[in-house]
Amino acid sequence: MFDQSLSLENLFRDSRWVYGLIGVVCALIAGSLLGAYGIMGALMAVGVPVGLLTLVGILLEPRLGLLIYINLSFILGFTRFLQTEAPLGMSLDAILSLTLVSVFLNGKRMAWSRLKNPVFYLLILWLTYTLLEYYNPDAPARQAWFYHIRSFSINWFFLAIIVFVAPITRSDIHTLIRVWVGWSVLAAFWAFKQQYIGLAAAEQRWLAEGAERTHILWGQLRSFSFYSDAGQFGSEMAGVTLICLIFFFESKRWLNKIGYLILALIMFWGFAVSGTRSALFGLLAGYPAYLFLMRQLKPILRGIAVATPVLLVLVFTNFGDSIYQIYRIRTALRPTKDASFIVRLENQAKLRAYLKDLPFGAGIGSSSGAGQRFSPNHFASQIPTDSWYVQIWIETGRVGLSLYLFVLAGIILTGVYKVWQIRDDRLRIIMIALLAEFIGIALVSYSNPILGQFPTSTMLFINSVLFATGERWDIPTLPKKPPLHRYEPQPLHRQHSF
């Protein structure tokens, strides 16, 4: 008679058999890959299961996809160490698209009503304009449109949908800030290593391929860490310095104050060794924005007391000029004596004449990297942009630039209104810090293409939605109690009518 205890159904009821069988199969597959492809096969044996688990995890929980996207934005900065022509940046787009798909698959858990927000409407307006730019008749290479529209509008729009509707918690916001500051600390120490110890072979090769012209000035290295260039690295360091300074001023516990002050000093020196003078204006704009948003006399007076002596020393003295980094920072406050600033103004004069009859610009993708790749002989690709707004101006015209500035102003004004409605003190400080940093980087983007470069753009796009919806994490409004009335004695005998 057949023994039921040995049936296939009972065999798989014991999970140990299932795990054992899976382990044997995986071992056989891994052995086959290793034998056939060597080290590459071993990497495939590890990478494929991890990739499948990541895929399933993102589809089940879009917040996981968002966290992976943030970390990958920083990790891709190490691509200069990989000698490959593979478009690794496309993996970032793939994670973002997969996360957006997850949002729709988990649609019942999403708060779609939060899309009724001025920031979302502004992003739709800008996205629509950039999509229509595909049909710009003056575009020299239409295929280049795809490469720049992602950083212009699509990435921001996709991230906005995800952050608006996903069930993000206050704990998630704290995690995001920790990840951001953690990567920034690593970036600062990586820059210190470049400045005081030396460059890796891959970094030296990157300089030799053309970056040396802008990253070694008068024999001094402008540290770039693992970012795209020193301009973005310095601006990011200045932005995170501002965040840490705000937390330092607003923390109640002295232990926390000491920690934030140390972090602020680390980030500030990271900004200093980058040699990115214009990044100073991220602090000069973001710090007053923080004081304005606080709407309290004490922080304003404290801020003036801290900032005024520093500015006076930088503007009216030569103290510290023997230290190259301090000298570079000081020259940012004297732009009319700076040769590179004068050259930028001359380039903008040439562009003004060229774009006079092009109200919609030369087409998205006609300048900068995509322009040099697809239309290297076109006028727009031969003029250095040196500015995010100049790039927007070249590629979308004065109409596009005006619309873009309107969108940025609308986002900032929405953020100001929203943070002023928050009742929870701790949450309000966090949102004010994010908004002040956004304002600072928006100003710095006049001289550097920061708003379109990840990981900085990743954080800015996410932060713009967070401070525009800060009320969703606020303390709930308590129902109003009925007014108390004085006790009025009632008669002992009451007449009732039937």
TrEMBL record:
Domain O-antigen ligase-related: 263-405
InterPro entries in the cross-refs: O-antigen_ligase-rel_domated, WaaL-like
UniProt entry keywords in alphabetical sequence: Ligase, Membrane, Transmembrane, Transmembrane helix
Keyword Membrane among record annotations: yes
Record-annotated membrane-spanning stretches: 17-36, 42-59, 66-82, 88-107, 119-135, 147-168, 175-192, 230-249, 261-287, 299-320, 401-420, 426-446
Any matching Pfam family: Wzy_C
Membrane topology, from the record: Multi-pass membrane protein
Record keyword Ligase present: yes
Subcellular location: Membrane
Organism: Spirosoma sordidisoli
Protein name: O-antigen ligase domain-containing protein
GO MF assignments: ligase activity
Main location: membrane
Gene Ontology cellular component annotations, sorted alphabetically: membrane
